[in-house]
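Researcher: Structure prediction, please.
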Amino acid sequence: MSEQTEHPRHPEATPEPIRWFGTSWLERGAGYWARRVAVPLGALAAAAAGALVLRFAVEGVRDSEAGGLVYALLVGAIALCSLLSGLRTWKVLSEGKDALTGWMAEEKSLGAVWLIGFVGALAAYFLRSLLEAPGEGLKRARYQEALTAAERRRTSKAARSGNPGRPKKRR
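Model: Predicted structure follows.
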């Protein structure tokens, strides 16, 4: 799905592919709606499986009789990491990676937080995919900007040359 094809009517503007959707989001054809159903279901199933794995890990700590405080801290840490990871994923899908600032932009130092909070990220992906193909609004806006810029270039070139269909006379 990573092919980057030119739009047949506008070869100067190239749409960016979206994971799982390719460039089918542009015309909303070629299995787009089937993917719009399958992607949220897949994200929900992955989030449920991840939550089950985390539950087993938390139950293991509770069964080890480490104490109520350790159990509460672990549950709180997982919940906080999931919340932060979900917020970050939502922001990336709705505004793009360039919109991340401050602590959300940190990749290496907060890698463990994003890893522990994978269930929150999957939940955000699920919720976002109910609205649109994740990242579709952002990619559509960029594509529209590229089309507008290409149209401006084409009209300014036509205005400079007078008649774009007729070659200039040489003296």
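Model: The radius of gyration is 24 Å.
Researcher: Thanks, that helps.
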